[in-house]
Amino acid sequence: IGHAFIQGNDFTAIYSQHGTIALHHISFGTRDRQYLSLDQSSFVVSDCHFPNTTGEFEPLHGSGGVKAGGRAIYQRCFFGGSDGYNDIVDFTGGNRPAPIIHFLDNVFIGTGDDQLDLDGTDAWIEGNIFLHAHKNGSPDSSSAISGGNDGSNTSELTILGNLFYDCDQAAMAK
């Protein structure tokens, strides 16, 4: 498992740094704390339910890319909306030829910011449904998928077979 901590929802329900995580069929009941923070970890998160948040925070976060030799997969998950100016998933790092993050067959139902914010991150994004991404008085724009530079790292996103409905922007390159 590496360094994975179940923190009793004081700040983040599940935090992993350099760990290996597998989460299947999990539903998060506490909606006023971050659900996952997966930093430089290897993970598979499938068939999980992340409800609408009731506070202003990014429900799913990751930095430092993917653990060497690992994988980073969100598959068949349901992502509720977030309050205020907060991304649903904010993941930074992980560039080819190293392992990259994958989003496969998920449903995202809304945000006032980006649903996937992937600065400095390479990603494979396939078969997802993105709904209701609208700027909510935020200083930035609102997109289903957003990528750009993070220091010297640039996002390279492969986006195919997704459905976008009622989004200010399907994708934005920053």
Largest beta-sheet details:
9 strands, mixed
Annotation, overall tally of beta strands: 20
Give the class from helix and strand content and strand pairing.
mainly beta
Q: Which residues sit in consecutive blocks of at least 5 with pLDDT less than 50?
A: 1-7
- What is the alpha-carbon Rg in Å? 15 Å
Q: Treating each run of at least 4 consecutive H or I residues as one helix, how many helices?
A: 0
Percent helix, as a range, is under 10%
Q: In percent terms, what proportion of residues is strand?
A: 35-45%
The averaged pLDDT comes out at 91
* End-to-end Cα distance: 35 Å
Shape: globular
- Could you state the order of secondary-structure elements as H and E? EEEEEEEEEEEEEEEEEEEE
Describe the structure.
The chain has 174 residues and is mainly β. It is 0% helix and 43% strand. It has no helices and 20 strands. It has strands spanning 3-6, 12-17, 20-24, 34-39, 42-46, 49-50, 60-62, 72-75, 78-79, 89-91, 101-104, 107-108, 116-119, 123-126, 129-131, 145-150, 153-154, 157-160, 163-165, 171-173. Strands 1, 2, 4, 7, 10, 13, 16, 17 and 20 form a nine-stranded mixed beta sheet that branches. Strand 1 (3-6) and strand 2 form a beta hairpin.
